[in-house]
Design goal:
Radius of gyration: 33 Å
Strand content: 5-15%
Structural class: alpha/beta
Shape: elongated
Distance between the termini: 25 Å
Number of strands: 20
Bound molecules: pyridoxal-5'-phosphate
Largest sheet: 7 strands, mixed
Length: 619
């Protein structure tokens, strides 16, 4: 289960020593030993760092540095820092026990965490020597973390992530997103961020507040609120995920984080899209980019050229990327390439073909429809006949892989017949692109539409149309600005500039996805894997007595429709989801069915596991 497995607390100011006073006198006395006086606020500034680093940071403050130099008669050396540190250390060690009281709500909060099976780690700006003074005291008073790492036990203290990593190693937690770092200083928040954990800032009794419990209590309400607000803003700017008054609020925060982690639970999507993608595709998104940046534009061009390469040569054909899901690209194709006064023939055998009809209708195009049964393929001969009997038809449009049913249509035959008759040929290859061979030039396809989130195994939000360049360069027929592919083309070529905001993160993910597509071995390898997935699916479902609806000769290896018969879809869906698989309801109109996709970052072993789960469910 994707849930919080560990909470890592800071010590002073977070779980003990209200207001974090123990180190304060040490810093002040340390600098006083060199006749330099520093204010408590100054002394607190870098709180959270390894203490010697803390002193180094203080000596870098201009006026302190200048006074030190004057008094020393030379610029500050590391030896001077160490001398200050030794005074600090002596004072601190005397103070530590006195300031080891546990803060309010710590014991209850820790009880809650233990009850939930959450492990408790800790990091500190103290050294092990200092910690050894504190730990027995604190344990006696009722708080004892499962593990403690001190700043001098790692190569670098905060804000470096190493103390958190050492905790994770000891507590056997392998995912930093299942760890919550809780602290009372900016350095704590930064430490959590660099370790990529969740981060929580505690306001009351924090070093950032710098007040004793009594001082906080005696402040006028408004003044307290004002000071709390300053600290909250500091935590927010530092990058905190949550900011709480005290640890009584932590259980609630843990529950909120758990909800988010549950949403991020990865499932194998055996659906028509979006599909299961690799982690590195998702991770490719972790940077903000500007649409008009030169590097980004280069990336855009490289993606478009690679897409064109999959089905055509880049001299005669080009890819135009379009913001939006696959249907946007299909509609843009209709808008841009179909003339109002010329007849468009839509040949359909499923929901996606019917969607085209609706799109043509709304675009006020002059169209006619040739329909086939959802469970059989389009008959090229019938297309040939209608083209002969209706010469006014100028454009032919159809779906290659009808994801509604799983039928694969004979794209080459239909396109060749239409081309031979002199028609413009537009194809929706949404769910077949990069999984079935498509040769635009040889087969006479003028334009096709697909999207990032199908067999290229990218993320949803970006679609594209590949077409003959002269079609993009001709006069557009679009009555929509956003769906005008000719206008979009003018921005994208040769500059790689999207007309309007581009989904930058999705494009970066698509760049990565295409690299992986090539790495796997391109079309041949992907086709082989999907076909192997489908083969295992058919063998295993046959054993379970689950019947495929579409005749083998029309069946694609993209998605398969099965009869539900006595199975309850909802119940099976819930069972499979619990086991990490997501399937899809059927879309046939006459009988109850369900669908299983065999595309995405899915392997035959996944399909076997899925079928084992179905078997367990059916028993
Ligand atoms: C997925 C798909 C589409 C596009 O659907 P969107 O929901 O807009 O992404 C179009 N046609 C076919 C055949 C598809 O499989």
């Amino acid at each position: 289960m994707n849930q919080v497995k560990g909470v890592i607390f800071d010590f002073a100011g977070t779980t003990i020593d209200y207001g974090c006073f123990a180190p304060l006198k040490g810093f002040i006395d340390g600098f006083a030993s060199k006749n330099v006086s520093i204010t408590p606020e100054e002394a607190r500034g870098p709180m959270g760092l390894l203490k010697v680093d803390h002193i180094r940071a203080l000596t870098a403050i201009p006026h302190i540095n200048k006074e030190l130099q004057n008094n020393l008669g030379h610029s500050v050396t590391d030896d001077d820092v160490m001398e200050i540190y030794h005074v600090f250390e002596d004072v601190l060690l005397k103070n530590l026990v006195q300031y080891s009281d546990i803060k309010p709500f710590v014991v209850d909060c820790v009880d809650y965490l233990r009850e939930k099976g959450i492990k408790i780690g800790s990091t500190s700006g103290y050294t092990r020597e200092m910690m050894d003074f504190i730990l027995p005291e604190v344990r006696e008073k009722g708080y004892s973390p499962d593990y403690t790492v001190c700043a001098d036990e790692v190569t670098k203290g905060r804000p470096a992530p190493y103390m958190i990593w050492q905790n994770m190693n000891a507590l056997q937690i392998d995912n930093p997103r299942q760890v919550v770092k809780v602290g009372d200083t900016v350095a704590d928040i930064k430490e959590g961020l660099s370790a990529e954990t969740w981060t929580v800032g505690v306001v009351m009794g924090s070093s950032e507040m710098g007040l004793t419990e009594e001082e906080e209590k005696s402040l006028p309400k408004e003044e307290l609120a004002k000071r709390k607000d300053v600290v909250k803003q500091r935590f927010y700017k530092a990058g905190a995920d949550y900011i709480i008054d005290d640890l009584s609020e932590l259980p609630n925060v843990i529950e909120k984080i758990n909800d988010q982690l549950a949403e991020q639970e990865d499932h194998k999507l055996l659906t028509p899209g979006p599909l299961t993608t690799r982690k590195s595709v998702k991770l490719a998104q972790l940077a903000d980019h500007c649409t008009w940046d030169d590097d980004y534009k280069k990336l855009t061009i490289s993606v478009m050229n690679d897409i064109t390469d999959i089905c055509a040569n880049t001299d005669e054909y080009a890819t135009v990327l379009l913001q939006g899901s696959g249907s946007y690209a299909v509609e843009a194709m209709i808008q841009t390439f179909c003339k109002d006064d010329e007849k468009l023939l839509i040949v359909e055998n499923g929901a996606y073909g019917k969607r085209m009809v609706k799109q043509a209708e709304l675009a006020h195009k002059n169209y006619c429809v040739l329909s086939f049964d959802m469970c059989s393929a389009i008959d090229p001969e019938a297309v040939k006949n209608i083209l002969e009997s209706e010469p006014s038809i100028k454009t032919v449009m159809f779906v290659h892989s009808e994801t509604t049913s799983g039928v694969i249509n004979p794209i080459k035959e239909i396109a060749s017949i239409a081309k031979a008759a002199g028609k413009t040929v537009l194809v929706d290859t949404m769910s077949s692109f990069a999984a079935y061979e498509t040769n635009m030039k040889e087969w006479g396809i003028d334009a096709l539409a697909a999207s990032a989130n199908k067999c290229l195994e990218g993320l949803p939000g970006l679609s594209f149309v590949i077409a003959r360049k002269d079609l993009f360069e001709a006069k557009s027929n679009s009555k929509s600005l956003c769906l005008d592919l000719c206008d979009q083309y003018k921005g994208l070529y040769p500059d790689g500039k999207f007309r309007f905001t581009s989904p930058t993160t999705i494009l970066l993910a698509l760049r990565r996805a295409i690299d992986l597509y090539k790495m796997e071995g391109g079309l041949a390898a992907r086709k082989e894997r999907y076909a192997a997935n489908h083969k295992v699916l058919m063998e295993e479902t046959r054993k379970l007595g689950i019947k495929a609806i579409v005749d083998e000769k029309y069946q694609s290896y993209i998605i398969t429709t099965f009869a539900l018969e006595d199975i309850s879809f909802e119940k099976m869906y819930t069972h499979l989801k619990k086991n990490g698989f997501v399937i899809y309801p059927g879309k046939l109109t006459d009988i109850p069915t369900f669908r299983i996709g065999t595309i995405g970052d899915i392997y035959p072993s996944d399909i076997k596991k899925l079928c084992d789960c179905i078997k367990a469910y059916k028993k």
